[in-house]
């Protein structure tokens, strides 16, 4: 993907029962605050986009989810993506109507790959983010579903290419090995994915320091980097991170205030 485009920093809010939570390697969740307050704070601090994942989404919770999507849309003026429990074109319609700009599809795209095509055909592929959770096992990257609980037969790079051909406008790749460890992103896998795809790749899993973001944009060739706990718990601030990246000749989309 064209590295001349400005890079994006994307705080990710995993939402469970109306609260933002964060774990390590997909388990051991701890409370990180109110998602609407955090969204407002990040928008003020210069986040380029936001991602909200309703990690315990079920159909019973759909109305609650729509309610906070509407609340977030009122509070922020930057693009935001919503994922979790989306399994039909109508689900997407409801979420976009509530104010989201994009939807993130993960398990349901694997169960029904044509869903990506149906959403892209109806709303445009710019609003379809295919999220892929994968774990490196020896020299093979296996794709997992159901919040990282269930291994599939799919291989990361093959599935990413297929998702692009089906209509995904972006790939959000989370390395389960790196998730929450703060030891850096999966640079080799990201660089390889970037070379194979012509759509943007969002890197997720492993952010622990400002230098990790520099590495993910230069060595990993990612178009965007997503992080959660380092922002939620105040370890790295967005304005400081943007200054650091600009000092290192890495331009981000929004300028901080």
Considering the chains and any ligands shown, give keywords for the structure.
alpha/beta, TIM Barrel, 257 residues
Notes on the protein architecture:
It is a single chain. By secondary structure, the protein is an alpha/beta fold. The chain has one domain: TIM Barrel, CATH 3.20.20. The protein is 36% helix and 28% strand. The longest helix has 14 residues, at 62-75.
Q: Tally the beta strands.
A: 12
The pLDDT mean sits at: 89
User: Beta-strand level of the residues, as a percent range?
Assistant: 25-35%
CATH H-level name... which superfamily?
A: Aldolase class I
Q: What distance separates the N and C termini?
A: 28 Å
Low-pLDDT runs: none
Fold-level CATH name: TIM Barrel
Sheet with most strands: strand arrangement: 1-4-5-6-7-10-11-12
Morphology: globular
The percent range for helix content is 25-40%
What's the quick description here?
Helices cover 36% and strands 28% of the residues.
What's the layout of helices and strands?
Blueprint: E1 8-16, E2 19-24, E3 27-33, H1 35-45, E4 50-54, H2 62-75, E5 80-83, H3 89-97, E6 102-105, H4 107-111, H5 114-123, E7 128-137, E8 140-145, E9 150-155, H6 156-166, E10 170-175, H7 187-196, E11 201-204, H8 210-218, E12 224-227, H9 229-232, H10 238-247
Parallel strand pairs: 1-4, 1-12, 4-5, 5-6, 6-7, 7-10, 10-11, 11-12
Antiparallel strand pairs: 1-2, 2-3, 7-8, 8-9
Helix pairs in contact: 1-2
